[in-house]
Amino acid sequence: MGQILERLKTWEMFSEAQTQLKLAVPVTASMLCNRFIAAASVAFVGKLDSGSDLLAAAALATTISNVTGNSICVGLSTAINTLGGQAFGAKQYHEVGFVLQRALAIMTMLLIPVTAVWCVMGELLTFIGLDEELCSAAAKYLSLLIPGLWGFAFKIAVQNYLNCQKHTRPAAYAAIAATTLHVPMNYLFIYTFDMGYLGAALAYSFSQILILACLVGYILISGLHLQTWPGWSREGLKGLRGYMALGLPGIIMLSEWWASEINIFMAGYLRNSSLQVATMSIYQTTIGMCFMFSVGLGTAVNVRVSNAVGAGNIWQAKRSSITTLALQLIVSAVLGLAVITARRWWSSVFTNDEHLIDRLVMVLVYASIYVVGDGITVTAGGVLQGCGRQAQAGRFVVMSYYLVGLPLSYLLAFPLKQGTMGLTAGGTVGTWVHCVAYCSLAARTDWEAQVESSRQRLRSSASSQQLAEMAAEDLERHAMKEASSANGEEASLLGGGDCDDDSQA
């Protein structure tokens, strides 16, 4: 690590930081818009005259949709980041389109059973012992989130298809367009159509489908797909096993999301459950908003590392990783400070209930600590995904949250009677364990091995012509490396590479 830092000149880091921010800012804008859409719907429910009961129902339904739907789709789509990004870096452009086709096929097979389970969720929630009225209201809300689930799943696949090609702006444009209509749509469904709290769910689904429509429309009109979309083909189904080899561990990486939502479920078993669930839901919404700022840099380093590994450019991958970590430390510190100083005002955005606001002011102290560790974790996770190390990373997620964070949350909340303060404290400890584990794993990356793994993945799904091209590239790379070694210079793998083309759509 010391040698790497010595070689990183100030101007190189500054140039890399500019490139990272060009990728990260649109991603952050897109994610913030998506988070605003979800948070605005919950906030509309919280402002209704029915008090915290309907807010708890909407929060519970949103939690279920995150755990059993959205998080799984996001986890599966991490394979697009790895496979598509490495194929793009290796200039196997049509393979990027085939990766998207595999993702869409797998998403469709996934969503059918998930939709069926959502339709009977009311009975399942009652069976596990939650309040019957709360379960009924949450089930109705969840049923209207089903169209949004399908829109979200396909949207995230298309978005990652573009991200891995360094086109991050289209998703931001689409999300901004949908966000401008989201508040009016909430008013329309909730008040004009007199749907009450259910109108918020329908408005959310409308916005997700609108984002997908805008994104696809933008791609077709601008021609962003022309380089990498080969047309629908059976070739797109050739590498399903390889896709799932990364997608399934990607879901495990996202099981941090599940752990956070499980805390909301545990809050439902505390005394005065509606108030406790509402507290945890707004807490989760807050740290989720902060996550959106960090995920932009996480996506940027994912793109840069995957492209560099695909191109065989090890030095670029290292430089991108270190630069992003430096940027993330600054962003995370600012976010933590913002949360702790503005926590009372932020709480009042969601509710008029003073008792609930007082509780939120207390738990958001932990949120200010949580977001710092979470931001660093996102960056390290982006490096690991760019390399295709989802399986290794997933094991640390299980250890951090399911062996440390959640047991500690339960211990503090129930036996030690700390309630929501205990739930949030346990989650914060789990996140910092996760942070240390990811940073350790990323720091010990064998970059030569990752380049070779990338070549093997591309070969496993390549056509005969692509295999011939890759063989020629391997011979050329080997010859250049031998020549460099003979002259006592750096191997070409450690120099500049093709993946430094940072053009944006």
UniProtKB/TrEMBL annotation:
Transmembrane segments: 103-129, 141-158, 170-191, 197-221, 242-260, 280-301, 322-340, 360-384, 396-416
Compartments (UniProt record): Membrane
Keywords: Membrane, Transmembrane, Transmembrane helix
Pfam family of the protein (one): MatE
Topology relative to the membrane: Multi-pass membrane protein
Cellular component terms per the entry's GO annotation: membrane
UniProt key word Phosphoprotein: no
GO terms, biological process: xenobiotic detoxification by transmembrane export across the plasma membrane
Record-linked InterPro entries: MATE_euk, MATE_fam
Keyword set includes Glycoprotein: no
GO molecular function: antiporter activity; xenobiotic transmembrane transporter activity
Positions of region (Disordered): 458-505
Predominant cellular place of this UniProt entry's protein: membrane
Composition-biased stretches (Low complexity): 459-468
PANTHER family: MULTIDRUG RESISTANCE PROTEIN (PTHR11206)
Family of this protein: Belongs to the multi antimicrobial extrusion (MATE) (TC 2.A.66.1) family.
NCBIfam families: matE (TIGR00797)
Protein name (database record): Protein DETOXIFICATION
